[in-house]
Specification:
about 160 residues; SH3 type barrels; 2 domains; 2 helices; elongated
Length: about 160
């Protein structure tokens, strides 16, 4: 059994997948350590000039927020917030369009149409792609009906 085998990594805090530790030399005088989920690929990276950062990477990966009345240990659920609204009227935060989970940001860009239209920025959570909802025109996108979501403690009010 090697020292690396003795390191206990908790499951991924996002998907529950198995974690893997990778270490090595990043440059002549720098080393790295990263812990990677083998399922969803989320990772923590540590780089250091003076020493091998393995313990720091493992400690960061294994750290979990303590349960509190405001953040229960059994998690959160997404629930509808009000009724469906047009995309242009959607509040900042998560929303559903069909089966697509997306996020509305506080930012907007001006379209290249004549006359220019303010186009609120929204992105698909899974891929990070800009949300168009199957449309190709800014005016059509603004009128899409979406369902705003809120997060609530699982089993709570």
């Amino acid at each position: 059994m090697t020292a690396r085998d003795a390191i206990a990594l908790k499951p991924c805090p996002f998907c529950g997948g198995k974690a893997k530790l990778c270490t090595g030399r990043a440059a002549e005088d720098a080393e790295f350590a990263q812990v990677i989920c083998t399922d969803c690929r989320v990772q923590i990276d540590y780089f250091e000039d003076a020493y091998a950062p393995t313990a720091d990477a493992v400690a960061a990966w294994n750290r979990r927020a303590a349960a509190s009345p405001h953040m229960p240990a059994d998690g959160w659920v997404l629930v509808p917030e009000g009724g469906p609204v047009e995309l242009d009227d959607c509040p900042e935060g998560l929303f559903l369009f069909g089966g697509t989970l997306a996020v509305m940001t506080e930012y907007a860009t001006m379209s290249k149409t004549v006359p220019p239209m303010r186009q609120r920025d929204a992105y698909i959570v899974e891929s990070g792609e800009y949300f168009w909802g199957g449309t190709s025109r800014t005016v059509d996108r603004a009128k899409l009906m979406v369902q705003p979501l809120a997060s609530r403690p699982k089993g709570g009010a």
